[in-house]
């Protein structure tokens, strides 16, 4: 069984993985600030809000800061946490560094790592500006949009549209957003 063969069903599953990383970082005197994105970020946020979200297979992070990038990347790989920095066009990385857009995970006693989750609107934008069918499904079939401040989300969508290389690409989930919102009557 590989490190990716199991499913993370709730915040405890994700926090267990992060606690293992924290322990290994402490042993090697590595300190790091990590941003949880993707399905695991949404799962953490939704569970905190008392809402459900589908299980996920991985923990995706963006690295905000560390004292030893090479060693940290090796540890992340060892525990099955994927670094996705540079994969997403939007939101831009500088927006993920804005402390007003982040929530620190305080439910675990980490010693060597600080773990943050972006606002639900930022996480929704990662789905909206994706071309993946799974992300479109999440927008339609989960409570992501209902959890967002719609005015704030739509403002961000308009802002981020300018960051996308090809905002007119027909496969962008962005082009389905108005219909999804109408269906959901958020």
Briefly say what this structure is:
Helix content is 46%, strand content 14%.
Structural features, described:
It is globular and about 50 Å long. Helix 3 links the parallel strand 2 (59-66) and strand 3 (81-83). The N and C termini lie far apart (41 Å). It has helices at 11-27, 38-48, 69-79, 93-96, 120-128, 133-141, 144-147, 150-161, 177-184, and strands at residues 32-37, 59-66, 81-83, 102-104, 113-118. It has one domain (11-184): Beta Polymerase, domain 2 (2-Layer Sandwich). A 5-stranded mixed sheet has the order 3-2-1-5-4. It has 9 helices and 5 strands. The chain is α/β, with parallel strands linked by helices. The mean pLDDT is 90.
Note the overall shape: globular
Task: Output the structural class.
Answer: alpha/beta
* Terminal residue distance: 41 Å
Computed over alpha carbons, the radius of gyration is 16 Å
Give the H and E element order: HEHEHEHEEHHHHH
Given this structure, which CATH class is correct? Alpha Beta
Secondary structure: helix percent: 40-55%
Arrangement of strands in the largest sheet = 3-2-1-5-4
Domains, number: 1
The low-confidence parts are none
Mean pLDDT: 90
The CATH topology is what? Beta Polymerase, domain 2
